[in-house]
């Protein structure tokens, strides 16, 4: 049932992507509806959150159908509309969907309509999805680089049930940039479910929260992004905001620990923006570096399998770690910096290795900026074909998880695989050890304690590390102009 369902969806997706338009709409009608997204709302099987924008205040509605039959009256639909930065924002929170079902939807705003499709999780233990990295664009041309990579990913991996990006959609989070993002991605965002993650460039004045209709009620509220979690089959995914003054607060760590202890899903994955392990320029600052201590402790204690991040625009995968040491795959967490899907790409900073993390824990890494292929700590293996945007596919089949990573060549759109990882484990071993409400509140005491913990880390660990690397950092700065 599931295979045939997704075969149908795949065909719909391919047609939509190949012909470059959203499903069932005319360009004239689309002109007044923009920034359309369909995201997981609460549960992958039963909830979706829709957002769309109009230039003016307009009465809006969404109609949801199965095989052309309007089923909206059987669902619970809540609307949230209001002005945002000079445009009109519309959100529809839809719950009560049936598991394992292909839905179509039509948004109506005045005389304009926009249609799309999505499918719900059927709850079995086969889950496929795509993860992209930073797009961080300002121009339409740059957004289209990310668009082409993601569309290539869907054509290559049409069984994907949703896609996540690892934050930094835009560069400055302005009306113009979100409109250009919408223009580039409205096709793909109309034919699948999206899992959004906040980047530090998206967080400006609540922009991110105004772009996506997410369920953050069972969570911890933060200033510059959102935390939420959901199940999809036998995978539990938590999305963590890393864009406040502290990359992660004690309240967030408590929320994540409880969240991961409240599931018996076989697979546990954390998605967030700032990366604990990187060879790029951003890991040298204490905010991201602090994640090596604070976040990893929670991942170790709660059997998280994968942590995927963005922020530094390159691909890095660690070996499985526990307490920052390499362990057997089944006993550790693998940390992946997912690569830039867009056009902005970073080079390796060589002084990072063995200073900010041990070379021994590096499994593979690909810098995209200059086409270097960098494996296991040496620079001997250069490959010019790595000049392109990156996407990752994840396939879970029962007790096996496969991660495959690809570069899409900028010029030819040819796909080249750059990494693969398979994890096999016994199913049914994760137990629920936390029950009850997991709504964490940041208060003055928590904030002070968070800053005290961060300050202790910064003074005790980060400052000595930074001072030790400063001569090499300055040498690189003089040679390359990059700090
Ligand atoms: Fe970033």
In short:
The protein has 483 residues and is α+β, with helices and mostly antiparallel strands. It has 8 helices and 24 strands.
Topology:
Layout: H1 2-18, H2 27-30, E1 34-40, E2 48-54, E3 60-66, E4 69-70, E5 76-84, E6 87-95, E7 102-109, E8 112-119, E9 126-132, H3 140-156, E10 162-165, H4 175-189, E11 193-195, H5 207-211, E12 228-232, E13 235-240, H6 250-261, E14 267-272, H7 286-302, E15 306-309, E16 315-318, E17 321-322, E18 325-326, E19 334-338, E20 362-366, E21 373-374, E22 388-397, E23 400-409, E24 415-424, H8 444-480
Parallel strand pairs: 9-10, 10-11, 13-14, 14-15, 15-19
Antiparallel strand pairs: 1-2, 2-6, 3-4, 3-7, 5-6, 7-8, 9-22, 12-13, 16-19, 16-20, 17-18, 20-21, 22-23, 23-24
Helix pairs in contact: 3-4, 6-7, 7-8
The structure holds fe (ii) ion.
Fe (ii) ion (FE2) binds next to loops.
Widest sheet, order of strands: 12-13-14-15-19-16-20-21
Fraction of residues in helices? 25-40%
State the fourth-level CATH superfamily of the largest domain.
Metallo-dependent phosphatases
Which class of the largest domain in CATH terms?
Answer: Alpha Beta
| Overall geometric form | globular
Largest sheet: 8 strands, mixed
Total of helices: 8
What molecules are bound to this protein? fe (ii) ion
Radius of gyration: 22 Å
CATH topology heading of the largest domain: Purple Acid Phosphatase, chain A, domain 2
Kindly report the average pLDDT value.
89
Total tally of structural domains: 2
Low-confidence parts:
1-8, 17-30
* N- to C-terminal distance: 54 Å
Structural class: alpha+beta
